[in-house]
Amino acid sequence: MAEQNQNNQAANGAQGEQPQVQFSLQRIYVKDISFESPKAPEVFQAQWNPQVNLDLNTRHTKLQDDIYEVVLSLSATVTNGDKDTTFIAEVQQAGIFAISGLDEAGMRHTLGAFCPNLLFPYAREAIDNMVLRGSFPPLMLSPVNFDALYAQAEQRRANEAAGENQPTN
Fold first, then answer.
1. In sequence order, which ranges of 20-145 are alpha helices (DSSP H)?
2. Distance between CA 166 and CA 121 in Å, rounded?
3. Helical H runs in the chain?
């Protein structure tokens, strides 16, 4: 019976099965980090009523065959009420990933959603740590649904491609 299973596996391999997907996290690191509080120390005398603006971006670069760098950029700009900027905390959290065996759509999803999802907790902790060191209350960022953001970006990309293919009147 074991011999028959081996023969079936060998026959299936000869028929051109999909390559096996391989994913490996090689390294997580901070690529860039910044904190500034342009109104310190005056800001510490004011009533605390923060307004938070969070910018999030991802990008990826192919380093070599099957090796990719993914960078998640977070920038939190906080104002106190309607006043000037209280502080800005920025981090570029990066990772090196070995990925193979995926089709083009799977690779785009992995680089655009799965990898940033792995990096986000590290970026969130780095932002929170900087804010605390700046003597401000913790800035606990809510989880981000990178799959939803990726789906929206893909939909925009498809709409733009469809718009380019539309005849003009």
1. 104-109, 115-133
2. 42
3. 2-14, 104-109, 115-133, 146-164
- The DSSP bridge partners found for residue 88 are 36, 77
Using DSSP, state whether 127 is helix, strand or coil.
helix
Write the pLDDT tens digit of every residue in 3-61: 554 544 444 444 556 679 999 999 999 999 999 999 899 989 988 888 999 999 999 99
b vs e for 61-82, b when ≥16 Cβ sit within 10 Å of the residue's Cβ?
A: eeeeeeebbbbbbbbbebbbee
Q: Both tokens of residue 31?
A: 């690529």
Bond before 41 cis per omega within 30 degrees = yes
Question: 60, exposed or middle or buried, with CB in 10 Å at 0-12, 13-18, 19+?
Answer: buried
| DSSP three-state, residue 86 | strand
Tell the residue number behind the tokens 């809510």, with chain if given: 142
Q: Which structural domains are found in the chain, ordered by start?
A: 30-140 (3.10.420.10)
Length of the chain: 169
Instruction: Specify the pTM.
Output: 0.81
Q: How many CB atoms lie within 10 A of CB 149?
A: 16
- CA atoms of 135 and 52, how far apart (whole Å): 16
What is the separation of C-alpha 52 from the centre of its chain, rounded to a whole number of angstroms? Answer: 19
